[in-house]
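Issue 218. Parser rejects a valid record. Input:
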Amino acid sequence: MCLQGSALALLRHVESGTRGTFVAAVALAAMALLVRYAGIAWVGAAALTLLLLQAGSWQQRLRKPVLFGFVALAPFVLLACLLQLAPAPQTQLLAALALMAVAGGNVLALWPGVTAARSQGIGYLSAYMSSVSRVEEVPELARVTVYTNAPDYLRMRTDFTIHDYPRKYAPTTGLANAAYASDAAFMEQQVREGKAVLAHYNGFEWRAYFPTLAELNESGYVSVLAGNGVQLLALPAAVNQ
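Output the parser choked on:
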């Protein structure tokens, strides 16, 4: 469970870059390593993932993998040293105390996230997703293509034709999308011809690789239907058709 939790937190960190997901990934990796030696392989794999999938120069990319490896391995190395130095009757006690200390540290590190999850939910079960308006209840959307910043969510809930917004850059590498301008122009053409509409979810604006609502407004898109936490956007010419 620690390995799975660390992997999920790491993948979310690669996508969002938030500090909380990084702390969770490191803390759970350290716990996994104290429970099973196989955790060493995961620490190496996680460091390699951070090195290859982060944005920035190689020099900038090295910081997080090194920090991840150092913090995740430190409790294990410390415990190994204590076990070597301590007399045999005390080794089990030291191991138990070290495990309890790491577990307590992990709880303290993860507690803000746990508290937020208990009060607001998490992911698709968050308070935002529970209260957001249901665009699947708009029957007209079944006849057009829906561009959105929450394609995964809409594909789970609808049979509509769903397309991602054009991506400004690749979320895993940070490399700019050379085709962004042409992709945005094609989306705009589809909307102008009445073949598409945009469903913009306010709670997914953390996906910075998609255009924000402010950027869409600057491009001429206007709200044609506003719900709780979501807006349907179109261009004035398409609205008047």
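Fixed in the parser; the record now loads. The beta strands are 145-148, 161-164, 196-201, 222-226, 230-234.
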